[in-house]
Amino acid sequence: MTAGFEQVYTHPENEVFRVVFFPDRIYHNRYLTATRSSRYRYNVTEVRSGADTVLMKGDVYLSGNRLCSMLRLEYSGERLVEVVRSQGRELGPRTRAWIQVQPDDGSLAEATLTLHWDPMINAYAVEVWETLELADGNRHDHRVAMEMGLNARIVHVAQLDHALADLSSLRKVLVAFSEDILVHPTGQFVDNPQWDNDYQRSHQEPRDPAPSSSANTVADGNYMLHFQRGFFIPDASQVEPVSYLNPMTDSGNSDAREDNVIAMRWLFQRELGSDVVFFHEVTVPPGAVEGTHRHVGSEELYYVVSGNGLAYMRDGDDPNNVVYPLVTRPVYGMDPQPCRELPVKPGSVIFTKSGGCHGIRNPGTEPLKFVAFLYHTH
After folding, report:
1. Number of H-type helices and E-type strands within the chain
2. pLDDT confidence of residue 27
3. d(CA 358, CA 365)
4. In the chain, where are the structural domains located?
């Protein structure tokens, strides 16, 4: 780290930006498996995270010399706990992960890994090293050697050698997690191991112009950790939208009509990290409505970019909105709710947290457009 960087980092006005340098400050000195011995150091070059999971790329150094490339996978198991408990079981000291790596050259490789619970990080973890072998005359520290081997905390997986040989070219990694095939603590075999596949994650693609066509929903069933470092869309208006008929409206909703169609341009979905589900642009044509709906376990932010309309927020969700008209609105999957009717225009922002309700309507003559972020909460 350069002295200039250190100077900038410690300036008081940069306190809010410390998160920008999180990997430099944390991951290079973080507890990882081989740090049981001071002879081993890690150079973590890139980190990607999804809900409940973290994947690191990096190099392992032994006594100051580079040993090999490595991938480290961590998984908190919060989602897997839910489905395992539904079977009357509990997670034990190990979980398993299906992993598929996708380098730039188009090759694919996959493997099954065993992850071990590590109380130091409150998560399951495994490290895949490019090699566990040392040159003649060298030995691993016994504290680290004890963690190496088949299905151990540090493993060598031949199927992944090609990807580890050039980590800079590794762009995508798909993962899904399951409970161990042996029940803890009895050791009984599990004939129906449960999976966390990112809640059967899917994404939207414009495959069929028919509104609400099922062909536009593409099943994924795994987490995607994307190592591309930047994305540029020259003109989002050229991204083909997906159309939806009567979105977020029940069959008895008076707003439901055969011509109530809105369009969504899905700009980023699985490329996003952490718990962010999507970033998209929504077009509500004149006279159209996105039905009022409630968020549970997720939060969403709308930012209006063009047009004028009326948004709906349940009464009391924002206690400052009492100055706006109170109306009763049908709510998707719920009984009608008292809502505040909010006039929106370019620059208007609606932020709805878990448990809150919102919707939007365009009573005007010009299209109403907004961009939306949605992410899961814990």
Report:
1. 5, 23
2. 58
3. 22
4. 31-196, 231-376
Residue numbers of the chain with a pLDDT score lower than 50: 1, 19, 22-26
DSSP for 27-64? Answer: GGGS--GGGGSTTEEEEEEEEEEETTEEEEEEEEEETT
Return the pLDDT at 24.
Answer: 45
230's tokens: 């930047």
Residues 231-376: name the CATH superfamily: Jelly Rolls (2.60.120.10)
* Digit-coded pLDDT (tens) for 90-123: 999 999 999 999 999 999 999 999 999 999 999 9
Which are the contacts of 38, defined by CB distance < 8 A and separation ≥ 6?
Answer: none
pTM of the complete model: 0.88
Q: Are 10 and 1 in contact (CB under 8 A)?
A: no
pLDDT at 23: 43
pLDDT value, residue 15: 61
Distance CA 114, CA 177 (A): 10
In this structure, which amino acid lies at residue 94? R
The secondary element (H helix, E strand) that includes residue 352 is strand 349-352
Angle (CA) 43 49 54, round 5°? 60
**Among 261, 103, 244, residue whose Cα is nearest residue 174:** 103
Furthest-apart CA pair in the chain: how many Å?
80
- Tokens 């962010």 found at: 276
pLDDT recorded at residue 111: 97
Q: Which residues contact 160 (CB under 8 A, 6 or more apart)?
A: 71, 99, 101, 109, 111, 128
The pLDDT value given to residue 187: 81
Q: CA 8 → CA 13, 22, 44, 136, 256, distances in Å?
A: 9, 14, 22, 45, 56
CA distance 228 to 212: 31
Q: State in Å, rounded, how far the first CA of the chain is from the last one.
A: 35
Residue 158 to residues 61, 95, 110, 121, Cα–Cα distance (Å): 20, 20, 10, 27
Mean pLDDT, the chain, whole residue set: 91
